[in-house]
Amino acid sequence: MEIAKNLSVILDRLPNRVKLVAISKMKSEKEIMEAYQAGYRVFGENKVQELVRKQEVLPNDIEWHMVGHLQSNKVKHIAPFVHLIQSVDSLKLLKIINKEAAKNNRRIDCLLQVHIAREETKFGFSNEEIIEMLNSGEWKELKSIRITGLMGMATFTDNRDLIRSECKSLKAFFDEVKKRYFEREPSFYELSMGMSGDYTIAIEEGSTMVRIGSLIFGERHNH
Ligand SMILES: *Cc1c(COP(=O)(O)O)cnc(C)c1O
Q1: What is the mean pLDDT of the chain?
Q2: Which domain holds residue 196?
Q3: How far is the C-alpha of 97 from the C-alpha of 113, rounded, in Å?
Q4: DSSP SS3 for 186
Q5: Domain tally for the chain?
Q6: Dist. CA 141 → ligand 1 center (Å)
Q7: Ligand 1: centre distance to CA 194 (Å)
Q8: In Å, what is the CA distance from 51 to each residue of 5, 28, 35, 112?
Q9: Which end of the chain is more exposed for a tag (fewer CB within 10 A), N or C?
Q10: Residue 44 is inside which H or E element, if any?
Q11: Cα torsion angle, 90, 91, 96, 101, sign
Q12: What angle, 0 to 180 degrees and rounded to 10, lies between the N-to-C axes of helices 2-13 and 29-37?
């Protein structure tokens, strides 16, 4: 019952424009079903194997998001059902998603992951790489994918000012990309930023989608 309660507390705080993706990585099917029974349908995972396993056993009307680093050779496993791939970090990956989507007679929506945090290890494009890729124009030929926005992860820190400035710069970059490449495309809309520790700041700075795990399901324990 905790899960249903946590979920409703968060949903109550979200402005209408902001969508919540419940990040269920490392959580059991039973825990996900608790959120499902409370009426929730949008879940995100960061590992292909785990995502596929859960999708197979859980109800069909769940909207699954992929939020973790995605290897090209694994795209085929999620292409039949994934709703949104939030972690696209290369043109090569985008092309493979396009190919696998076509095989499944689908169009797959994608977010480009932008590297905004200071940490070296996080995946994602730099701003320059995104501009370079969009300038190349090759992505326009990919008819089975649609770029619907950007995703970013701020530095994991207690420093609220740093988080806010990273969110601000991602929002400014989003606005620039929108203006330069997607001005006439209402489908380029999504700015996925904000997690358990920083979602209120992210929303104040213009997020349209938050990805929240531990505040809903409790801390994750590695085993
Ligand atoms: C785990 C994860 C989240 C959720 O993290 P919490 O701090 O538990 O809310 C959000 N986004 C991505 C990409 C993640 O891997």
Answers
A1: 95
A2: 2-217
A3: 15
A4: coil
A5: 1
A6: 32
A7: 9
A8: 24, 11, 16, 20
A9: C
A10: strand 42-45
A11: positive
A12: 50
Query: pLDDT for 25-77, tens place per residue?
Result: 999 999 999 999 999 999 999 999 999 999 999 999 999 999 999 999 999 99
| Cα(152) to centroid(ligand 1), Å | 11
Asked if residue 198 lies in contact with residue 154, where contact means CB atoms within 8 angstroms, the answer is: yes
Query: Which residue's alpha carbon is at the smallest distance from atom 13 of ligand 1?
Result: 67
Q: Is residue 197 part of a domain?
A: yes
3-state secondary structure of 191: strand
Residue 125 lies in a domain: yes
What is the longest distance spanned by two Cα atoms in the chain? Answer: 50
Overall pTM surpassing 0.85 (yes/no): yes
DSSP 3-state percent helix, strand, coil across the chain (nearest 5): 45, 20, 40
Q: Per-residue b/e over 149-163, b at no fewer than 16 CB within 10 Å?
A: bbbbbbeeeeeeeeb
Ligand 1 contacts (CB < 6 A) are 23, 25, 46, 67-68, 153, 195-197, 211-215
